[in-house]
């Protein structure tokens, strides 16, 4: 990491601020020209609309370019050192993501359906001897509709989820398969036959527990663990979904509506960014720390 750090903090802050300003300007040009293009085509000013379309395409290219450079600069100069501080044997790809197989294999209970997965900021690492993966994830619901005027089918997509997704392998068989979701009316109705009522009424008000076996849910969700999950969910900044898989993996998805490791509108102050990124990671590692010592989480070996 030291070899990559070629800029002082002051130079890096100036570079990040400049790239963000250029990306913001490109975004304004792109969306403004795009809106003008549709309006001008609609009123029949085709030549002017074509000019606006070309401007929108150039703006889109610049937006993509500046966003990519900004992400790469953050990755090389800030994110990589933060990851090394928290994890061991880190592999980080700012433009990669969790595989479809991992995401779909979690069997998460969402109040929406999705058919397409995107993402970024893919991390593979070891944390206190446990293998994990983490990335930004976006889930999209895809629909097809027939356009009578064009006589063709058109595809449209709607973003249903944007946030962070952790997969941690505890390396041991868990006591059961248990899934946690936000308490919504639709999910209560959908899972009336496999929804488990826990002995914590506050927990039940906020979270739905889905499991085929109630005893397995009680093993995984001890009173201490339910209290902790409620507290962690309150600090998450979004909706929390969890999936405990018997094979040993825990999936945690947090619908925050934003990406990991983004500069956003915050100050480009490097120390502040480091603390922000560390806090985002510690939210997940704190859950791992709390869970890994829960004896009832793991299936007991039966003696022969």
UniProtKB/TrEMBL annotation:
Protein keywords: Membrane, Transmembrane, Transmembrane helix
Transmembrane intervals: 28-61
UniProt keyword annotation of Transmembrane helix present: yes
Pfam families registered for this protein in UniProt: DUF3137 (PF11335)
Protein's recorded name: DUF3137 domain-containing protein
UniProt xrefs under InterPro entries: DUF3137
